[in-house]
Amino acid sequence: MNKRLILKLAGSVLLVEAALMFAPLIISLIMRSGDWSAFALSIAITLAAGSGLSQVRPRDDTLSAREGFAVVTLSWLFVSFCGALPFFLSGAIPSLVDSVFETVSGFTTTGATILTNVEGLTRGLLFWRSLTHWAGGMGVLVLSLAIIPKMGGRSIYLMRAESSGPSTEKLVPRVGKTAKILYQLYIGMSLILMIALLLCGVNWYDSLIHTFGAAGTGGFSNYNASVAHLNNPAAEIVLGVFMVLFGVNFAVYYHVIHRNWSTLKQGSEWQLFLGIVAASTLAVAFSILRMPEFQGHFGRALRATFFQVSSIITTTGYATEDFNRWPQFSRTLLLVLMVIGGCAGSTAGGLKVIRIQVLFKSMARDIRKTVHPRSVNVIKLDGRALDEKLISGVQGYFFAAMMLIILSTLAVSLDNFDFETSFTAVVATFFNIGPGLSMVGPTGNFTAFSPAAKCVLILCMLMGRLEIFPILMLAAPSAYEK
Amino acid sequence: MNIIIVSDGQVGYTLAEYLSRDGHDITLVDKSRRALQKASETLDVLCVLGSGANLRTLIEAGAEAADIIIAATTNDELNMVSCLAAKQLGAKYAIARVRDPEYTESLTLLQDKLDIDQAINPERATAQEISRLMRFPFAINVESFAHGRVEMVEFRVEKSDRIDSVPLSHLHGRYPHVQFNAVLREGEAIIPGGGFEIHIGDRLYVTGDRVSVTAFFKQLGRDTQRAKNAILIGGGHVSYYLAKTMAGMGIHLKIVEVNEEKCKSLSETLDNAVVINGDGTDRELLESENIRDHDALICLTDRDEENLVTGLYGVRLGMRKVIVKINRLETMDIIGDMGIDSVVSPKLATANVILRAVRARSHSQSSVIEKVYPLLANQAEAYEFVALSGGSYLNIPLNRLSLKRGVLVSMIVRGRQIIIPFGSDHIEAGDTVILTALAGTMVDLKDAFDATER
């Protein structure tokens, strides 16, 4: 592997992170929250590390797939560590493992927290915590690709390794330009969301925090009670709608802007995604109607359900209700939605709707094959034949995800919590949702886990966000062979 | 510019590589998933799976906003339809590869009706390349510039040339009418300076007008007799065009072709060539046709292996010139090591011709690029520019302009004059300037000079 190039590229990502950290520094100075020194120090450290690494002169700058994977994984590890510095240095989170957990949870847009009292954090730290969601949602490397003019020749590997979904397609011929367009869309939609929240009467700081959380589909709030604290039905609906929008493949918006209606009509993923949201909302709404607080108030039940479904399927993890107390059917359905997740190429986590589509189609083909053993079946999606490699890739991904979830659950259950807690803690971190059920439900948090279990969950979050293989590859000895 | 390339395999890849390096936004359309996979992983281009004649594919590739559509598949009809469809959708300029002689004759009409702005014929370009080699049988490559007035010849330096281990500045004194442009030594391209010394075995490029170049090689003691007759193996499109050109040059030609139908149609269309029906790899046949008495052996079948084996046979017989056609580009340098210097490739020729066409369209205000010619396994390039008025480098002696590293002003053609430039010479508006530089550095004449003048 071209180690020098990997270090150099990871270094330039750190520089971008250092630039990002100036935002909370400014907020901290404006709001006099007293944590500016922690940020100043963190920026200095990150800058030093970043500029040191980006001084490395690679012998050649050809990037292959495995180097792309390595750059992405290494960048994420570096960025998570440097991002944890403000929490650690300010003393707000005394344990280093906890600080890293909180930061990884931020960048991977998980939104799982180890804090028992979120409101105790200073304003600057709260801002940074949410900003990590926003940057991690679309991707720190994609951000670097958009900002830094030339990240070396074959930068498509970087984008592939970081973007979600089984196949990453560019929107325009150049990777750098594609990254720019994605961020333009992202910033544009975030601005609209923020303005909408302001119009709903939410103050600017809360709007900003919740915009970051919803746009990155992360789920950090600056209140212990999450979005419920705002007590603002209009804001709930706005957030619910926007979470769904951020769970849709960003290419869809590019096509909307360019009026490619035929391409849009062909795209079955976003349509299916919206269909699942609608159907689940109705199903859950009917099931919670029997609960005493919703008795007869179908409108209220629908609002609460829509927000919860939208938050869970896009793997955001905001809560307006304690859905852990909802009937078992609703809880199970929400768990299923967690696994499905959003669309490929969005900021959402989960398996991704397109993978579910591919898995179902390949299952249908296997059934047809048993009926007509000699039949030739090409699996088609959106009017075009799918590459067999892609199909087996999706099957492999599904198995890897399930296996890792089982192994991680096994590891986490050493802490001796009940099955529902251990299992949903792993699912909620692996698919970057945040809250699970039982002890880690929307009113709970992850603080009770042992440091070892937290490390396992940190790995889960990273593997979920980077879609497993970049991380697994680094564990394979053959990756280091010359 | 937004450029769509419709291709099947390697030509598209080579084109996309070069054009993307030139700064254009490339969309590659191909039916082969495999070709696209390679392109999407190693090049910064957009790949679209499908046929170039399919409207949906073209729309997906963004034909509406395309500046140039290039259709370069091996299928002439598909190329023409692709161009027509893309033009209808809104593409601004269409380049189609059309190679069948049946079409080339009625091409002006077709081009007009089908709305193709430029038709390129790499087979004919290859034939012309081969015919130039006939003039200098010892040369590896021969290319002409400034409408044929300047010639660039690549050859391997031998002991008997007595030009090794002498600084170039001394050689300039000895041979004032030619310019030494570039050297390939052990696979590395060098743009030489005045202190550079040539070694035996280097591949050297010299330029000059026709007479001076011939005189130079005479002085070196090279056999400058041009080939008078040749045996040609394989009767495809290139052979047809080659036979036409060679007839004009007075070279006697024998064409050996296995396929009887092809032989018949060749003998119908060609009056001067002898067409023989037989297997070109058959030594008995070649011997009975007195292969030893021929100056040149040209292998143009569709199979690389056959061409290679027959070519090696020709080398062993000690023929003056052996030329081999190769389809797989990556094997080209290996073949050079085997003793066959002159390798032609219609695929590479296609890419080169199209590259020139595109670069000529993207000209800037101060110069027009007429020609780009790749040298030394594509590591360096020779450029022909026409300087227009308005360039900041005009009328300033070259020694007061700071030339970029690795750039050499090889020739200035001014009216009837051909100048080998020295420090005191300058470029005037209207001059044709031939430059040699490392590949991919030049789009405009002003790129040769550092922005700040001394």
> What is the tally of helical segments of chain B?
15
Q: What is the radius of gyration of chain A? A: 22 Å
What gap, in angstroms, lies between the N and C termini of chain B?
Answer: 34 Å
What is the mean predicted local confidence, pLDDT of chain B?
83
Give helix and strand order of chain A, one letter per element, not per position: HHHHHHHHHHHHHHHHEEHHHH
Could you give a short account of the major beta sheet of chain A?
2 strands, antiparallel
Q: Which regions of chain A have little confidence, pLDDT < 50, spanning 5+ residues?
A: none
Tags for this entry?
heterodimer; A: 482 residues; mainly alpha; two-stranded antiparallel ribbon; 20 helices; 64% helix; B: 454 residues; alpha/beta; Rossmann fold; Alpha-Beta Plaits; 6-stranded parallel β-sheet
Quick structural overview:
The complex is a heterodimer of chains A (482) and B (454). With 482 residues, chain A is mostly helical. Chain A has helices at residues 3-30, 36-54, 65-89, 96-107, 123-138, 140-147, 156-162, 175-199, 204-215, 233-246, 250-257, 261-266, 268-288, 298-313, 328-340, 353-371, 388-412, 419-430, 451-465, 469-475, and strands spanning 380-381, 384-385.
Account of the protein in words:
The complex is a heterodimer of chains A (482) and B (454). Chain A is mainly alpha-helical and 482 residues long. Among the domains of chain A are: 250-340, no CATH class; 353-480, no CATH class. Helix content of chain A is 64%, strand content 1%. Chain A is built from 20 helices and two strands. Chain A has a two-stranded antiparallel ribbon with strand order 1-2. Chain B is an alpha/beta fold. Among the domains of chain B are: 2-120, 3-Layer(aba) Sandwich (Rossmann fold), CATH 3.40.50; 232-327, Rossmann fold (3-Layer(aba) Sandwich), CATH 3.40.50.720; 363-448, 2-Layer Sandwich (Alpha-Beta Plaits), CATH 3.30.70. Chain B has helices at 10-21, 33-42, 55-60, 76-89, 101-105, 107-114, 122-135, 168-174, 210-220, 237-249, 260-269, 283-288, 304-316, 332-337, 346-361, and strands at residues 2-7, 25-30, 46-49, 68-71, 93-97, 118-120, 141-145, 150-156, 179-185, 188-190, 203-209, 229-233, 252-257, 274-277, 296-299, 321-325, 342-344, 367-375, 380-387, 407-414, 417-419, 432-438. In chain B, strands 3-2-1-4-5-6 form a six-stranded parallel β-sheet, with helices on both faces. Chain B has a six-stranded parallel β-sheet with strand order 14-13-12-15-16-17, sandwiched between helices. A five-stranded antiparallel β-sheet of chain B has the order 7-8-11-9-10. The model of chain B has no long low-confidence stretch (mean pLDDT 83). Chains A and B meet through helix 8 of A and strand 2 and helix 2 of B.
